[in-house]
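Take one protein record:
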Amino acid sequence: MTRRANRVSEQLVRELSKIISEQLTDPRIGFVTITGAEVSEDLSQATVYFTVLGGEKEKRDTFAGLISARKFLKAALGKEMNIRKIPELKFEYDESVIKGMEIFKKLQEMRNKGSENGPERKDN
């Protein structure tokens, strides 16, 4: 990713987070967090990654709400960002947060099993 595309993606995350929390009123959109964005080098397309608090239903509802709000979000971004053309927005659920939580849980389980067996002995 070029420096410019990287800067645009960072600004996109900030502005979308703000717009979604302050301006969107769609009841399908729950407690959503924009976790990142990847902007194409020509700045014509952006993949926006999100997570949402809740289960599968909240994930599906939020995704549907974000898709239906795409035009509104693009227009709102046009008012906030100082670039000639706002990228087309594509939304994807960010699985990395769930995977990270699963890894953390497994590490905790391993640590707890280790402490049940007692401290390791070190022979000098």
Q: What stands out?
A: Residues 3-23 form the longest helix (21 residues). The chain has a mean pLDDT of 88. Residues 3-116 form a domain with the GMP Synthetase; Chain A, domain 3 fold (CATH 3.30.300.20). The radius of gyration is 20 Å.
